[in-house]
From TrEMBL:
Pfam families: GAF, PNPOx_N. This is GAF domain-containing protein. It comes from Pseudazoarcus pumilus. InterPro entries: GAF (IPR003018), GAF-like_dom_sf (IPR029016), Pyridox_Oxase_N (IPR011576), Split_barrel_FMN-bd (IPR012349). SUPFAM superfamilies: FMN-binding split barrel, GAF domain-like. Gene3D superfamilies: 3.30.450.40, Electron Transport, Fmn-binding Protein, Chain A (2.30.110.10). Residues 161-325 form the GAF domain.
Length: 449
């Protein structure tokens, strides 16, 4: 009788020490093979990667029962599972999660292009028994994840606005979870991209950097709205940065002019991307990484998934709250002085440059351009979120678009560039434009050159 719960031995499924599967053909010929990937599905099911039509797969199609031995990566404790093949999934969250993990394993071993997941073979776990053998003492837990989750959600509940929420959440991840490298990316559903709106622990913030939905661990987590965790080094981020460096060396700097590098560790060895969802839709991705192998286990994935659910609800709350606004207190106007600054906008991609230096593009660029036009034409300096959301010049994809996140992105880009234009909060749902030098607006129909 099974007295060992599958969820209590999840760490042994990580594959740090490859699992061993034993099968038997219909005519009684046994076969033993190593496994590259075993995935925990729920308390009664696991999934094994199907990469080749080999003897193991031929046997389970003939005789669905198999034995699997898994080993804990720290204690070396072994468990033997009796499993029964149920089905093969070739699409959906389970398949995509396993495919992304397999890509990380392949890149770590120099086998990219060789490993290809054909399917996720789902098995029922019928019995679990401990293999009698000496084992090392279990490592003590790094910290109480429930206490960390409680402290972080308390911090989130105290945030007065969206920008504070994102900043304080990342700070709490470092303080309470010990995750010192993290970022929040919001979804641009219309363009199938994610853009970085907050980060922590990197040399450059990378605010405004983008990644396509479906690219890498982050993009794959967004595409299928499911957490993806890799315990070994992946070359995805390093590959992107290497391509960018080669383009720059090859004299293609102009082509990259409006690209902001995605922040990342030079040697990321553990990655965890968790969807931020609310009201049944994807809002973005909470991402953490580490230079340490196996830094994130199943427990960290569970904790961040719960945290991301709280974050999604809080993001939605602050979005709605920003649509109402207080009466702004009167302030002394900022008088521009000095030589004029040329603000150039390229209509093709809504990119905006200040005195030839790239600042922002896309929806955030359109917002800035509309505000600067109102300022130069009518001297307007006060704007409400609600007015911006309904402004036809900005062409927000739909009313659910995350305007507040784009305003945070725009404000941070202006601050990072120490620009002569600033966006300052003037109360709930209100912004004040501060312009410290005269502006000369120039609009160009073609692409940036």
């Amino acid at each position: 009788m099974n007295t060992i719960r599958l969820d209590l031995i999840r760490e042994s499924l990580e594959g740090t020490i490859p699992g061993i599967v034993a099968t038997c053909s219909a005519d009684g010929m046994p076969n033993v093979a190593y496994l590259s990937q075993t995935e925990y599905v729920d308390q009664r099911h696991i999934a094994l990667s199907y990469q080749f039509f080999n003897t193991t797969r031929r046997n389970v199609l003939e005789n669905p029962h198999a034995r699997l031995i898994v080993t804990h990566p720290q204690s070396a404790e072994r468990h033997r599972l009796l499993i029964r093949y149920l089905r093969t999934e070739t699409a959906g969250p389970l398949f995509e999660r396993m495919r992304a993990k397999l890509a990380g394993i392949a890149s770590h071993t120099g086998m990219s292009g060789v490993f290809r997941l054909l399917g996720s073979d789902v098995y029922a776990v019928l019995d679990i028994e401990r293999v009698p053998a000496a084992a090392l003492p279990a490592a003590p837990p790094r910290r109480s994840l429930l206490a960390a989750l409680r402290a972080t959600t308390d911090t989130m509940a105290a945030a007065a606005d969206l920008e504070t929420l994102l900043t304080d959440t990342l700070a709490a991840l470092k303080r309470h979870f010990g995750m010192g490298h993290a970022m929040v990316l919001m979804l641009d559903a219309a363009h199938e991209k994610l853009y970085t709106v907050a980060s922590l622990g990197y040399e450059r913030s990378g605010v405004g950097s983008e990644i396509r939905v479906g690219d890498g661990v982050i993009g794959m987590a967004a595409r299928h709205a499911t957490p993806i965790r890799i315990g070994h080094m992946t070359l995805d981020a390093a590959y992107g940065r290497a391509i960018r460096a080669e383009a720059l060396d090859g004299g293609l700097a102009g082509a990259l002019e409006t690209e902001i590098p995605l922040p990342g560790l030079p040697e990321s060895r553990s990655q965890l991307a968790v969807p931020v969802r609310a009201a049944g839709r994807l809002l973005g991705i909470l991402y953490a990484e580490s230079a340490q192998d196996l830094r994130f286990g199943y427990d960290e994935e569970d904790a961040l998934a719960a945290l991301a659910a709280q974050l999604g609800a809080a993001v939605l709350h602050h979005q709605h709250a920003a649509d109402t606004h207080d009466d702004a207190a009167p302030t002394e106007p900022v008088m521009p002085a000095g030589t004029p600054v040329e603000v150039r906008r390229y209509a093709e991609n809504d990119s905006v440059f200040l005195d030839g230096e790239y600042l922002i593009k896309g929806v955030a660029g359109t917002i800035l351009w509309a505000m600067l036009h109102d300022y130069t034409d009518r001297g307007r300096v006060r704007f409400s979120n609600r007015e911006l959301r309904l402004d036809p010049r900005i062409r927000l994809p739909d009313l659910s678009d995350n305007l507040e996140a784009r305003l945070i992105l725009l404000r941070r880009r202006l601050d990072e560039h120490d620009a002569c234009v600033r966006l300052v909060s003037a109360g709930r749902g209100l912004l004040r434009l501060e312009v410290r030098r005269p502006l000369r607006l120039v609009e160009v129909a073609g692409p940036p050159r």
